[in-house]
């Protein structure tokens, strides 16, 4: 079996949740026997601060609802405990039978941005080598994919923040677009507070006056789905007022002429009509950004989760490039990655189109490099498979078996009813997790796994900083590491030797070799090197290389070293409000919950603080429908109806409704959302659904 490090209280490790990966210390609790969590004052990203999710994360360990025994669904539909050998034999035999009967792509694999780098890497290898399927994708497709695709197109490479978080504090102007960091990354606010204390300005663009927007110097309350037009309008003003950096554009970029022509259509008066942002505010924001010595634009899911998400992000990149700010000190464009390992999780082969290190599965040289490390023939590697939503759409038809590791697709994916029907239609659904969730409700096999503080591994935070999770707590008897589960099933499929690692570090060492020479090059990063510092930023091509906290100072990752402008135009969403469905519906997060809520809904303090989703509604709209806070409001889209408790607030636009997506069942916001995808990133349009109010109940 995989060798585990000895648990040790007081070691430095990291929070199990979001991409900030706050440093935490865990000590013995004086009361209930669970480890006490405190913020690590020496980790330079959170500086000792944690949000409520981090503070309560110890409650996940030793939780009474945790599953500790493998389970098989009996013919009557109830779970029964099984031995590991029985569960592995069953899964491997079923997968082999599906492969035999329908071909290798009949088995699908669904991964997660919560998995460590080692797990993400091994899961990608498991899909391609043990199962031979092209159909592997992961929930990061719902999170980061639009920003990743736009950054790759513009810069030749995608790293969430190409500069350290600490640069925020020194930026004269920061513009946050579609990012509510006060709720999603609360310890990030300390950097904005310091930036503002030093005289800097914070601009926030969002359809909701969020907790973050309330701290802004300028708040642009745009219409959902108009981010691209807003960015082009800002660039129009910069051009009109001759504030662009023509020398930078000439020396470091290509393609600006087409952008210059395209943004001529975006006079601020026209942009005001499209976005609802007054021309005066638009002009002020453009001048602040353009005249600051240092300025950055940071994007979040609000601007990315659209069927034009890639182009929207590229519009922001065009703006920042035209101002000569990418690669300049304390400046640039970055995206605030969401999931804990949203960055590393997308680098190491869980995506349908990529192999480890961001190598592309359709490029022969890339296939050959990875095949060589895996000891297989390049021709044996599958080609590009289905992206996440398309994979879920194929459940029960082209895809007959699904192996899910660390993801709750029944809640997190759009058009949830269709996903549920797909899950029910499968011949085999295997869920690897610590707790049952809405996805495992349809599973045939449940494989219980170690939790975050019970095994080691590496994560890559939103800065591209590779850090170590360490063993703090001994796992209960029963669960196994995901790594061991993959090895056991691969063994039964005839290739166990390729998955036999003595410990997690050995998996990381193979990952290093698989990424050598790749865009996301980890080959110079070792566990010892991470231990000696507060992590190492990739790319890091040799063991004596210090890592790369700051990118693009001299060249971009395209062959000619130049960044790419790309002319983009506003276009309508997959479905816009109309006479039948006249309102925008948009989704987001509470600070108490994380993604599908599979973990945080288990934590008593978090559940008590936010037990149910609430529908935010403007007072004007509420009056029209006779709604008061607490009324039960049924929202209907073209796919479903969902009833929410109303929260009447002037912080939201009068044409927009908002609800969080952390809950499943009949309270799932994603029952309403559509399956419209960005044509490049295949990102679903979570942030814009046309809906109507179909009913109101009181009492
Ligand atoms: Fe930090 Fe994110 Fe954990 Fe909160 S959830 S403590 S912000 S890593």
TrEMBL record:
EC nos: 1.7.99.4
Keyword terms: 4Fe-4S, Iron, Iron-sulfur, Metal-binding, Oxidoreductase
An annotated GO cellular component: membrane
Enzyme class of the recorded protein, top EC level: oxidoreductase
Pfam families: Molybdop_Fe4S4, Molybdopterin, Molydop_binding
Gene Ontology biological-process annotations: respiratory electron transport chain
PROSITE patterns, sorted: 4FE4S_MOW_BIS_MGD
Annotated 4Fe-4S Mo/W bis-MGD-type domain residues: 8-65
Gene Ontology MF, one: molybdopterin cofactor binding
Lineage top rank: taxon: Bacteria
Classification via InterPro entries: Asp_de-COase-like_dom_sf (IPR009010), MoPterin_dinucl-bd_dom (IPR006657), Mopterin_OxRdtase (IPR006656), Mopterin_OxRdtase_4Fe-4S_dom (IPR006963), Prok_molybdopt-oxidoreductase (IPR050123)
PANTHER family reported for this sequence: NADH-QUINONE OXIDOREDUCTASE SUBUNIT G, RESPIRATORY NITRATE REDUCTASE
Protein name: Assimilatory nitrate reductase large subunit
Organism listed in the record: Frigoriglobus tundricola
Taxonomic classification: Bacteria, Pseudomonadati, Planctomycetota, Planctomycetia, Gemmatales
């Amino acid at each position: 079996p995989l060798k585990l490090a000895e648990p040790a209280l007081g070691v430095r490790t990291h929070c199990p949740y979001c991409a900030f990966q706050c440093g935490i210390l865990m000590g013995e609790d004086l009361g209930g026997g669970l480890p006490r969590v405190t913020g690590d004052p020496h980790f330079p990203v959170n500086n000792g601060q944690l949000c409520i999710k981090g503070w309560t994360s110890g409650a996940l360990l030793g939780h009474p609802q945790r599953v500790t025994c493998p389970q098989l669904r009996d013919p009557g539909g109830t779970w029964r405990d099984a031995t590991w050998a029985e569960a592995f034999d069953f899964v491997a035999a079923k997968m082999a039978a599906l492969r035999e009967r329908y071909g290798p792509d009949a088995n699908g694999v669904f991964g997660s941005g919560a998995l460590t780098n080692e797990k993400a890497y091994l899961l990608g290898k498991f899909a391609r080598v043990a199962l031979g399927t092209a159909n592997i994708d992961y929930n990061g497709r719902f999170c980061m994919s639009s920003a990743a695709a736009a950054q790759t197109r513009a810069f030749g490479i995608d790293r969430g923040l190409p500069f350290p978080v600490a640069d925020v504090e020194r930026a004269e102007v920061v513009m946050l677009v579609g990012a509510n960091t006060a709720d999603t990354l609360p310890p990030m606010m300390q950097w904005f507070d310091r930036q503002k204390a030093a005289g800097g300005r914070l601009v926030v663009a969002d359809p909701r006056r969020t907790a973050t927007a309330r701290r802004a110097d300028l708040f642009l309350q745009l219409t959902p789905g108009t981010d691209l037009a807003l960015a082009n309008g800002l660039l129009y003003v910069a051009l009109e007022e001759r504030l662009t950096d023509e020398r930078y554009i000439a020396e470091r970029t290509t393609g600006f002429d087409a952008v210059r022509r395209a943004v001529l259509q975006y006079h601020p008066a026209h942009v005001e009509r499209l976005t609802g942002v007054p021309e005066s505010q638009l002009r002020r924001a453009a001048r602040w950004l353009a005249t600051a010595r240092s300025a950055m634009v940071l994007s979040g899911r609000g601007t990315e989760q659209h069927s034009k998400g890639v182009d929207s992000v590229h519009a922001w990149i065009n703006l920042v490039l035209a101002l000569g700010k990418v690669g300049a000190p304390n400046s640039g464009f970055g995206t605030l990655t969401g999931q804990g390992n949203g960055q590393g999780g997308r680098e190491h082969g869980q995506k349908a189109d990529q192999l480890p290190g961001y190598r592309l599965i359709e490029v022969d040289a890339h296939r050959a490099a990875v095949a060589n490390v895996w000891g297989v023939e390049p021709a044996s590697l599958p080609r590009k498979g289905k992206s996440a939503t398309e994979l879920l759409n194929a459940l029960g038809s082209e895809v007959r078996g699904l192996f899910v590791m660390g993801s709750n697709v029944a809640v997190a994916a759009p058009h949830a009813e269709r996903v549920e029907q797909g899950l029910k239609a499968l011949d085999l659904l295997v869920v690897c997790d610590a707790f049952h969730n809405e996805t495992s409700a349809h599973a045939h096999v449940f494989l219980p796994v170690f939790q975050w503080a019970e095994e080691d591994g590496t994560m890559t935070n939103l800065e591209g900083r590779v850090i170590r999770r360490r063993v703090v707590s001994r796992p209960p008897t029963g669960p196994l590491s995901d790594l061991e589960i993959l090895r056991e099933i691969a063994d039964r499929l005839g290739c166990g030797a390729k998955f036999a690692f003595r410990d997690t570090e050995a998996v990381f060492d193979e990952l290093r070799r698989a990424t050598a020479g790749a865009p996301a090059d980890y080959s110079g990063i070792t566990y010892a090197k991470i231990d000696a510092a507060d992590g190492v930023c990739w790319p890091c091509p040799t063991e004596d290389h210090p890592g790369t906290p700051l990118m693009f100072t001299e060249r971009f990752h395209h062959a000619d070293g130049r960044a790419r402008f790309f002319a983009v135009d506003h276009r309508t969403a997959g479905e816009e409000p109309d006479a039948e469905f006249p309102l925008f519906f948009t989704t987001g997060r509470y600070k108490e919950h994380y993604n599908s809520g599979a973990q945080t809904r288990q934590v008593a303090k978090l559940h008590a603080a936010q037990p149910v989703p609430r529908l935010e509604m403007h007072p004007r709209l509420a009056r029209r429908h006779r709604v008061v806070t607490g009324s039960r409001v049924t929202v209907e889209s073209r796919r479903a109806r969902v009833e929410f408790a109303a929260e009447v607030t002037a912080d939201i636009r009068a044409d927009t409704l908002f609800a969080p997506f952390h809950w499943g069942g009949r309270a799932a916001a994603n029952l309403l959302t559509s399956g419209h995808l960005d044509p490049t990133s295949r990102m679903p349009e979570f942030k814009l659904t046309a809906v109507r109010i179909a009913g109101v109940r009181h009492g």
